[in-house]
TrEMBL record, chain A:
This is Aspartyl/glutamyl-tRNA(Asn/Gln) amidotransferase subunit B. Signal peptide: none annotated. It comes from Bifidobacterium italicum. The gene is gatB. Coiled coil: none annotated. GO terms for biological process: glutaminyl-tRNAGln biosynthesis via transamidation; translation.
TrEMBL record, chain B:
This is Aspartyl/glutamyl-tRNA(Asn/Gln) amidotransferase subunit C. It is an enzyme of class 6 (ligase). The gene is gatC. It catalyses: L-aspartyl-tRNA(Asn) + L-glutamine + ATP + H2O = L-asparaginyl-tRNA(Asn) + L-glutamate + ADP + phosphate + 2 H(+); L-glutamyl-tRNA(Gln) + L-glutamine + ATP + H2O = L-glutaminyl-tRNA(Gln) + L-glutamate + ADP + phosphate + H(+). Pfam families: GatC (PF02686). The keyword Amino-acid biosynthesis does not apply. Belongs to the GatC family. InterPro entries: Asp/Glu-ADT_sf_sub_c, GatC. It comes from the Bacteria. It comes from Bifidobacterium choerinum. HAMAP family: GatC. Heterotrimer of A, B and C subunits. PANTHER family: GLUTAMYL-TRNA(GLN) AMIDOTRANSFERASE SUBUNIT C, MITOCHONDRIAL. The lineage of its organism: Bacteria, Bacillati, Actinomycetota, Actinomycetes, Bifidobacteriales.
From TrEMBL, chain C:
Allows the formation of correctly charged Gln-tRNA(Gln) through the transamidation of misacylated Glu-tRNA(Gln) in organisms which lack glutaminyl-tRNA synthetase. The reaction takes place in the presence of glutamine and ATP through an activated gamma-phospho-Glu-tRNA(Gln). One of its GO terms (molecular function) is ATP binding. GO terms for biological process: translation. The lineage of its organism: Bacteria, Bacillati, Actinomycetota, Actinomycetes, Bifidobacteriales. Keywords: ATP-binding, Ligase, Nucleotide-binding, Protein biosynthesis, Transferase. This is Glutamyl-tRNA(Gln) amidotransferase subunit A. It comes from Bifidobacterium italicum. The active site is at K84, S159, S183. The gene is gatA.
Length: 499, 89, 513
């Protein structure tokens, strides 16, 4: 059923959107939050369980020290109040993928209290997102739905449960209601999620791969007529797992709610979900008594004590935060604001940094990663990291160019062959016999031949019109099978014209 | 009875009637706790005051899949079988 | 060769002495107990599962050890023991006396079971209890009714009626129980045995099926105070798999018990009579035995003072909020997904996972368990939490404070363990509140996490055993062992032997071969 939507531009003119994000970040610890079961990606189903993570009778939880330290790191990065005493509580509800039928989370005493995160938007504006809390909790298992279409829950006749993920530590970062975003609400949410992703990667506390479910967000949206009005009723769209999905969810919800409110309707307080295929959110469950989670302090666990000294120890070894790092690299590389933004948007910062570390010039590294390689990645629908080429190969190609062993054309061919899996740049150059013809005699002859064949061009060049130079270079390239150095060709042509 | 739903027990009507009267009696007798539970009294969650021991992040050998599934009412392809699940949390 | 009936009537300490003197083997002990189990079970029904062959193998493993190896082991090595079926045993079916767990064979051992195995104590089997330890008569077991060895028409108390009856009927010299509101001590009182609830956190709960996590504690069941002390030192101590486990090691309980037994000198010890835990509501025969025992303590030099714990009258209320709240959450995992029972809904009901869980739990849990789950769900639900759970936690603080003040005036506190002697089957089954009153004197210790024990104080006018309760300060379990052992010795002197000399044991007749 198609829902009535208001035009976005009209909706944000008539209403003030307030958004909230609850971001789940799966931590990359070796073991689970409450037991020493190993964690890996893609293990056989139900092979990463101890009696604790399987919820066997008699088993008891014991807190993983690394998970607590990871939470403190994230708390520091988000400028949170790190609470000296925090407590785990049980969130009680029944679901087949929950081995104990309660989740162990933190309720009124979270490890990380209030904080904030400054996020930079595309045009360089900085927006401060207020953080309510960042608490520690454990994940549930995974259901696979059988018998329905496309493994979806609708129409499935039964489900298969793999509890491997049960007990994997999560941090849930809860923002306060984000006000004042106006028509930029979707953009701010997207920038915030990317900033969180960059931070947890910099901290090395999560793999932060959205497509693998390492990060997912519940998106709250409500509208009000005027910023001075109280908050409107909100919808909560659960488990959105792509940056674009989050932006579009917010856009869609603003349009949907605006249409309802404009018609004098009421917004239901409900959970919805984002449907990637139809690019819309669909209604789920209306909030009900079933949401009475009956939180109480987990009597199997005792108070978590984080001393200020311990927090200081962690603060001392905190890595540079992504925003500071970006500013530093921008200076070091002498990139303009626009150039830097292009790098960030292309998700190429790490790759360029590594390529530069391996000896390439910043502009050289940028040229490859934002040019050829971005096009290749887009065409294949993969990330730059997933391309079969790494920083070392790009740096090698750059060095070969600098050493005059490859020209632009050959370099491009070399890169294509690396992408085709033919080996390292050095191996490819060797195998295909690539070399730049700089032997003066051969080049002189080829240039002369090209000039002789194009007298009209020679005339123009002599007259100071340099435009047709390309035609000569092209002819020389063809004659030398692409091995000529374009700069050397130009030089010889100019000498010959003058001479 | 809504409590039966929350507790996931398909109580019979007879049970609900009986339990309501029993629970009322019990509830009345335990309401007295509110008499002394004044604001100035801190709550106690755990009788012996302890700080959490934090376990090193070192994996142990997990249970074999066969041990994990040994007591399962129904399994398929190394997984537990759940009847139809309605509504995703 | 010792007469078999005499052998099984020995205390665990005496059995251990005979093992060390090589008068008997561990296999002799296990075989003798298995014979008694065979003979007694038709009338007593203390065991849900007897693990005879495994116990004999464990006995042989002990018997095969060298003298040097045996010397390294605890004193009770080679002595068999029975385990309440609330404690997880690898390879032995563990049910918590519930249909919902019927047939479950755990893939792991509780910490206490690992310790017993390391001490080479053969495990005879699993004993009956009220379903998920919820009850005070063992009548709420889904499988069978356990009889009191003193009168097979009466209950053995609960929830640990199976362990107490097994030890009382000489089917085992020792057993383990779990005590959440009196489940070790009250059956001890009703069967004339010794039962100890250690300090909360003194014995690891890892592998004890959770009833109410902040109250549950595993403890010894025996026929003598010294046997319990020896057993508690074996099972106690820090366990990193239990976050509520106390980091310090077990207290010197055996030394305290031996001191009490050998010297019977209580000079300088102040014994606090808890005003709120006797008098009204306690049977006259129970009161009489209790006060006679207090006189004995005085005669051995103890100074008796009366102490008041004004908030104890709120203990039952707080207990019946906290306990069911934790029960409702701890028992959520029995949902028909991973182990135990699964019941699909009737045909006219949608065959969904949620309905499967609801029908499984309806069929798998008994009345009392359901009652407590519903009560706990109510107490934790939105809008009631502060008034109920929040208030109960505050009462807990007040009770801890009462104990603190009482222990400023006395070294150890005393009371009758249970208001009455063993009652008849069915007598209190229809009146939950009357059943709950059984635990009025035992509950405060659970709420405060302090150690407490029950020892036999004699027989009431009805010829049934009466229990005498000692309560000590947190993490000072040894403090109660000394007066308990001294009192036991003084009373046995009066009785010309242990209390069970008055017990008729028809199941032992004709056992001697």
């Amino acid at each position: 059923m198609a829902e009535k939507l208001m035009k976005y531009s009209e909706a944000v003119k008539k209403f003030d959107p307030v958004i909230g994000l609850e971001t789940h970040v799966e931590l990359s610890t070796n073991t689970k939050l409450f037991c020493p079961a190993p964690i890996s990606f893609g293990a056989e189903p139900n092979t990463e369980l101890t009696p604790v993570s399987l919820g066997l009778p008699g088993s008891l939880p014991v807190v993983n020290a690394a998970a607590v330290d990871y939470a403190i790191k994230l708390g520091l990065a988000l400028h949170c109040q790190i609470n000296e005493w925090s407590q785990f509580a049980r969130k009680n509800y029944f679901y087949p993928d929950m081995p104990r039928d309660y989740q162990i989370s933190q309720y009124d005493k979270p490890t990380n209290g209030e904080g904030y995160l400054d996020v930079e938007l595309e045009d360089g504006t900085v927006f401060r997102v207020p953080i309510e809390r960042a608490h520690i909790e454990d994940d549930a298992g995974k259901n696979t739905h059988v018998g329905g279409a496309d493994g979806r829950i609708e129409g499935a006749d039964h489900s298969l449960v793999d509890y491997n993920r049960a007990g994997v530590p999560l941090i849930e970062i809860v923002t306060k209601p984000i006000e004042g975003a106006g028509d930029r609400a979707p953009e701010i949410a997207g920038a915030y999620m990317r900033a969180i992703r960059d931070i947890v990667r910099a901290l090395n506390i999560s793999h932060a791969r959205m497509e693998q479910g390492n990060m997912r967000a519940d998106v709250n949206v409500s509208l009000r007529r005027d910023p001075s009005d109280p908050f409107g009723t909100r919808s909560e769209t659960k488990n959105v797992n792509s940056f674009r999905g989050i932006e579009r969810t917010i856009q869609y919800e603003i349009r949907r709610q605006a249409a309802i409110l404009e018609d004098g309707g009421e917004i239901l307080q409900e959970t919805r979900h984002w449907d990637e295929a139809s690019q819309s959110t669909a209604g789920g469950r209306v909030k009900s008594d079933a949401d009475d989670y009956r939180y109480f302090p987990d009597p199997d666990l005792v108070m978590l004590h984080i001393t200020p000294e311990h927090v200081e120890e962690i603060r001392k070894v905190m890595p540079e935060m992504p925003r500071e790092r970006r500013n530093r690299l921008k200076g070091e590389w002498k990139f303009s604001d626009t150039e830097m933004r292009d790098v960030i948007n292309a998700d190429a910062l790490d790759l360029i940094e590594e390529t530069v570390k391996l000896g390439a010039t910043p502009s050289g590294a940028k040229k490859w990663w934002l040019g050829e390689l971005s096009r290749e990645a887009n065409a294949k629908g993969v990330s730059l990291e997933e391309l079969p080429i790494d920083a070392q190969a790009v740096a090698d190609v750059e060095r070969l160019i600098a050493d005059g062993k490859l020209n632009d054309k050959l370099a491009k061919q070399t890169v294509s062959l690396v992408l085709a899996g033919e080996g390292s740049p050095a191996e490819i150059v060797e195998k295909h016999g690539f070399k730049v013809v700089s032997d003066d005699g051969a080049l002189q002859a080829a240039v002369q031949e090209a000039l002789d064949a194009n007298p009209d061009v020679v005339e123009k060049l002599k007259g100071g019109n340099m435009k047709p130079m390309g035609a000569i270079i092209g002819a020389v390239m063809r004659a030398t099978k692409g091995q000529a150095d374009a700069k050397a060709v130009t030089k010889i042509v100019l000498e010959k014209i003058k001479g | 009875m809504h409590l039966g739903d929350l507790a996931r027990i398909a109580l019979t009507d007879e049970e609900i009637t009986r339990m309501q009267s029993e629970l009322n009696v019990i509830a009345e007798s335990i309401n007295s706790v509110q008499e002394v539970a004044t604001d100035d009294v801190p709550p106690t969650a755990n009788p012996v005051p302890l700080e959490a021991y934090l376990r090193p992040d070192v994996p142990v050998k997990p249970l074999d899949q066969s041990e994990v599934l040994a007591a399962a009412p129904a399994t398929e392809d190394g997984m537990f079988v759940a009847p139809q699940i309605l509504g995703e949390e | 060769m010792t007469d078999q009936n005499e052998l099984v009537k020995l205390s665990a300490t005496e059995m251990a002495a005979k093992l060390r003197a090589k008068e008997i083997s561990s296999r002799d002990l296990v075989a003798a107990e298995l014979d008694v189990i065979d003979a007694a079970e038709p009338s007593i029904k203390a065991f849900l599962k007897v693990a005879g062959e495994a116990a004999l193998e464990q006995a042989d493993a002990f018997d095969d050890l060298s003298d040097d190896e045996k010397a390294e082991l605890p004193e009770l090595a080679g002595v068999p023991i029975a385990i309440k079926d609330m404690i997880v045993t690898k390879g032995i079916e563990t049910t918590a006396a519930s249909r919902i767990l019927e047939g479950w064979v755990p893939p792991y051992d509780a910490t206490v079971i690992e310790k017993l195995k390391a001490a080479h104590m053969p495990i005879l089997g699993k004993t009956n209890l009220d379903e998920f330890a919820q009850g005070s008569s063992t009548e709420h077991s889904a499988f069978q009714r356990t009889s009191n060895p003193w009168d097979v028409e009466r209950v053995p108390g609960g929830s640990g009626g199976g362990s107490a009856a097994a030890v009382g009927a000489f089917e085992a010299p020792l057993a383990l129980g779990t005590d959440t509101g009196g489940s070790i001590r009250q059956p001890g009182a009703l069967t004339g045995t010794v039962g100890v609830k250690p300090t909360y956190g003194g014995v690891s709960r890892f592998g004890a099926i959770a009833m109410a996590s902040s109250l549950d504690q595993i403890g010894p069941v025996s026929r003598t105070v010294l046997d319990s002390a020896l057993l508690q030192e074996i099972i106690g101590g820090h366990d990193r798999r239990d976050s509520t486990s106390i980091p310090e090691g077990p207290r010197p309980m055996v030394a305290a018990a031996r001191d009490g037994l050998n010297n019977r000198d209580l000079k300088g010890m102040k014994v606090g009579l808890v005003k709120e835990l006797n008098g009204d509501g306690f049977q006259p025969g129970v009161e009489a035995r209790f006060h006679e025992a207090v006189k004995k303590l005085e005669a051995m030099g103890a100074e008796v003072v009366e102490v008041s714990c004004p908030h104890f009258k709120y203990a039952l209320g707080a207990y019946y909020i906290i306990m069911p709240s934790e029960v409702s959450s701890n028992l959520a995992r029995y949902d028909g997904m991973r182990y135990g029972l699964r019941v699909m809904p009737p045909e006219d009901v949608p065959q969904t996972a949620a309905n499967m869980m609801a029908y499984t739990r309806e069929a798998g849990f008994g009345d009392e368990v359901k009652r407590r789950i519903i009560l706990g769900t109510y107490a934790l639900s939105a809008g009631y939490y502060d008034a109920w759970y929040g208030s109960a936690q505050k009462v807990r603080t007040l009770i801890i404070d009462d104990f603190r003040k009482a222990f400023e005036q006395a070294d150890v506190l005393v009371s009758p363990t249970s208001p009455s002697t063993a009652f008849k089957f069915g007598e209190k089954m229809d009146d939950p509140l009357a059943m709950y009153m059984n635990d009025i004197a035992t509950i405060p210790a659970n709420l405060a996490g302090v150690p407490a024990m029950s020892i036999p104080a004699g027989l009431s006018d009805d010829g049934l055993p009466v229990g005498f309760q000692f309560i000590a300060p947190q993490q000072r379990d040894e403090v109660m062992y000394k007066p308990a052992a001294a009192l036991e010795a003084a009373l046995e002197e009066d009785w010309n032997g242990p209390i069970w000399r008055s017990l008729r044991t028809p199941w032992l007749d004709g056992l001697n071969k």
